[in-house]
Task: structure prediction
Amino acid sequence: MFMISAPLIASVLVYGSAIVTGLTLQRRAVDFFDPAQGGGSIFDNATFGGEPMNVIISGLSSPDVLTDDGILNFAQAIGFSQECLGLHLGDPQTANLGDGNGSVNQTIEFRQDFGSDFLGTCLESLIGGNHFRVFRQDGTQANSGALFLAASKEQPVNKNHDIIPDGYNIGRDELVAAAVGTKSHGGVTYQVDAKNITGIMPAGSDGVNHGMSRPAEHFELDRLTQPVCATLGIAVDGIVTLLTVTIQ
Result:
């Protein structure tokens, strides 16, 4: 009879197709896991509903891209950078990616930098533009290493950074257009391929931040101090774009 020693059992365990060596869970070689399959959501948690995580950087991308420093350099390669002077106003948004970590804060947030890594995002904070939040799927139940991005295009600061009409779809499309192809920054060259995915995000405005009725003070008021509209009604089209980023 073939026997397996206890030390061997303790040191190598199979978890699905992932392997646990000692106490370290090895990342599974997949693009991503659908958050809903693990009790999570493709929408993050914002003030008045959820914002769509409408772009995913595949877990099959070059490993260095998926680190904190790696996503910063990649973001700068496609026209985004850290927030103005490193300052963030308001609370971070949270998301549950169905990986066993529960609801966790965003890893980082990037804003359109208008060609300047240092001060360009200050301009975005004033006049509006594109931005995205990053969430990493790395819990023990679904450790793809993929980065889920909540992209949207927002209005100027004097309009409370509300999302522009169709701003979630536009934010995604502009981010993807800036990323696809060959990009370089900081001595690193990337090849980026994109694929649209349907079926993991419902289309429409139900439960979507800025797609729901909100208090009057969040709307631009006319001369009679009456709300211009009762709801922003911003919807999503149900498309998530998967980016595979390969370092050349």
